[in-house]
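Predict both folds.
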Amino acid sequence: MTGAGRAWDSYWRDTRERAAFREGGAQEAVLERFWSEVFAIVMRRCRAPRLLDVASGNGIVTAHALRAAQAAGVTFSRVCGSDSSGAALDEYRRRFPLAETCLADTLALPLPDGSFDLVASQFGVEYAGADAVLAIARLVAPGGMMAIAAHYREGGLYREGAANLRAVESLLASGVTSAALALFTAGAAARAQRDLDSALARLARLANEHGAQAMGGSLARFHGDLRHMAARAAAYDHAEARAWIAAMADEFGAYRERMRLLLAVALDEGTIERLVAGLGSRGFAIERREPLIMGSAQPLPGAWALVAQRPAPG
């Protein structure tokens, strides 16, 4: 498995109901409105639509779809989530036991052409490369739709990801996890304690510099938890403490990889134009191609909305 694959498996193993965006944030309302509009169109055109949630994670799009269908009195005749992460699909199956799953790379989905009335993805398909958007177009049935919400380069979520990457890289370079492991290996040895105190001071400065919300609040929480443990080192089982510290170090490494990927896959306007042209050459009509504005204090584009219709026969 690649480093990217391990990073996402780590995320989904440790995630139950977390979404690909912050729960309750401004971006959730914007994305939910986008999907509500998409599903309203699909359900007007097809009374028993078939849905493929590409790079589904734990099923954010699927959850929106099923809520919309219930409200409209419509039943999806087929629901499928595809992802390259087995851990993600474990969560997907837990949430949607009646749905199908497909464990495969987005560029090589083993599904027949024209199988779905809606092929959808939220912050997922672009991780396989921008051309994955064109690759999955074959799965759209005649008269069906493709709907994508993809990361917007230099937008609000992109900038948040860049800030989180700086924070986690600073954390990993601080030496705090090594110092903590040394303390719980050597016991409360004076030198180990001094080294950890020094590392915690650096970590405190980082938490202050990057803010309480850096890395979703995990930088500040890690500082608080580790400071509490260091002050009571003698009360902890040292093997358990080392295991926890090592697990946190691994998670921070995986988080760094996910932030790097987010920045790498975000789409700029030139790429969107190329995808629009590619879909047009495949016979699709572009129904929406626009940035979704997110944030209240400083509204910025957060995602590209791309919706394309495949003409019905005749």
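Second protein follows, with its predicted structure tokens after the sequence.
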Amino acid sequence: MSWKFPIYDDLARDVAAAVAFLRTRPEISPAKIGLLGRSEGGWVSALAASHDPKISFVIMSSGCAVGPLEETLYETRRGLRESGVSPDGVEQAAKFKTALWEFDRRVAAGKTSVETLRSERALLLKQLDDFRKAKIESLPYVMDPEVEDRRKFAAIANMIFYNPQPALNALRTPLLEAIGTDDEAVNPATTLSALEKLRSAGHNITTKTFPGVGHSLLKMQGTTILGYADGYLDFIVAWAHDHVS
């Protein structure tokens, strides 16, 4: 896979290689290595640890326990609503993005005729033009399968339709989710619900919410950064310490 289009399996292998290297260092205890993944890094860290039960812990910092498709549509809908877009416009944009990614997946599969893909792409371009005229949102570019490398479509499809549940189900490592209640990119409700189901099934999962902060977990005053949410750094350090002691 091209470095420009990594998939989560590629990134998890990079993490595994980094952990393997750390275990060779005499100044590092190999039994006390944990992972902290920010945002998408939560998927990557959980995936890497699902293959390596010797990893001491995983911290998902504003991580997501549902897939990229659901997360991205949440972010799209929330952002458009806050921009004043009508409910119909919001749903049109969400449907367009879903259709675009389904198009990418069909191109990647290589089972759809050139004529059908050409017709589907023309329809997507027409919808995209309508969105631009309505100034609803700057939507993604519609790649041309007759020009672009099919591996690009495959990489996008693999990313957007990634399902984190198998990795989370396979995880035998303690996991902490730290998330802001006002997260604009990850829906706290669906992620916390998914993690609660895993905890009820016997997984070692801790969740911690931080009121009044968004995806960055930073406190803001206008455009001024005041620092991380109160207690965030202390909490994750103490939790990690408990799980390597």
